[in-house]
Amino acid sequence: MKWGQLSALLGMKSMKQHIPLIGEFELTGRCNLGCKMCYMSHKIDDSKVLYKEPSAKEWIELAREARDMGMLFILLTGGEVFARSDFREIYTEISMMGLTTTIYTNGTLITPQIASWLGSRPPSQIEITLYGASQESYEKICGNGDGFHRALRGIDLLLDQGVNLQIRTTVVKDNIHEFEKMKEIAGIRGIKLGVVNYVSPRRDHLGKNYDEMRLAPKELVDLEETLSAAQAHQANLSEPLSEDSLNIHKELLEIGFQEDDPFPCSCGKNTFWVTWDGRMVPCSIMNKPEAYPFKEGFLSAWESLIRQCSQIPKCKECSACDLKEYCMTCPARLMNETGSYEVPASYLCQCAKERKEREGKNYENLHKTNN
Q: Which one of 46, 191, 322, 327 is most buried, counting C-beta atoms within 10 A?
């Protein structure tokens, strides 16, 4: 059995049994960049935020409790994880727990010394977010033009140490013109470029910058078509999925995602997110429901979160909509977009409509070509 098949099986069984297989630890809310579209970030020297952040000892103990309850995959993220002076202590202890560990970072604080240390004790993967392909884009988006060169330096330092690395980007209006250049940056280094194409309103509902930054529905669907074409090409170069793999994925869908389930993902089934201020929530962009693992213990918080997630209503209007198969709706997005789990979000509706119209046009064009 290949690793992908095994992890899919683990995911399937853990969702069925509500085992917390995947933990995501937001170690800090502070960051040295000030990205306009970030769903959550505070200045790196924000003393009020620093005061609320759990200690290294608390994070380590929480990871140990979660591991003992079944957690196998852990993500360490922020904010910017290297903004924590004690990140080395946290990571070192967690790396000895037998967990499959991923680190998210913007890469700008990685020094030769940090890269060497990570190379000597590498995580399963490090993902560095690239916000553009120029100093100008970083200045517009992050408020720090020098961040571009520092991110590239961080990427190259880690690659030199043999660390398993991926670059990802959040595509917004201020960097979409550099999308191909970002692909080149990844390509010449022999690594993949992952893409985040949905920009959420802030989790704490502060500020309205997301509407100025995120792609219009037409732009978003244009990008999706570009990505789909690239993925289709890659799939043609790969081996087809085995019958066992197809059966696993089919069973995964049947077990994990029931008709009345509002979550089209693993949130509240086998996945949890712990915020920088110590709350357990279903995912990175959800502020509610919440539990308190540092106060009540991991098990109690996890059981509370499962219970609360099961009580979230499914949007009836979305469920009855003829665009639902084209839509990327979920409780987190509905709540952040509209303030309710049961009110359709205009932006998501417009994107779904654009996808359906585009599919119709593509079919007509293909029919004309064949005839």
A: 327
For residues 67 and 22, is the Cβ–Cβ distance under 8 A?
A: no
Residue whose C-alpha is closest to residue 348's, from 362, 370, 369, 331: 331
CA distance 215 to 171: 8
Are the C-beta atoms of residues 65 and 299 closer than 8 Å to each other?
yes
- Report, in this order, helix, strand and coil percent for the chain, each rounded to 5: 50, 10, 40
Cα–Cα distances (Å) from 164 to 101, 127, 190, in that order, read: 11, 9, 11
What is the band of 302 on the pLDDT scale with cuts at 50, 70, 90?
very high
- Amino acid 314 reads K
Q: Binning pLDDT at 50, 70 and 90, where does residue 347 land?
A: very high
Q: What is the dihedral of CA 117, 143, 78, 332, to 10 degrees?
A: -150
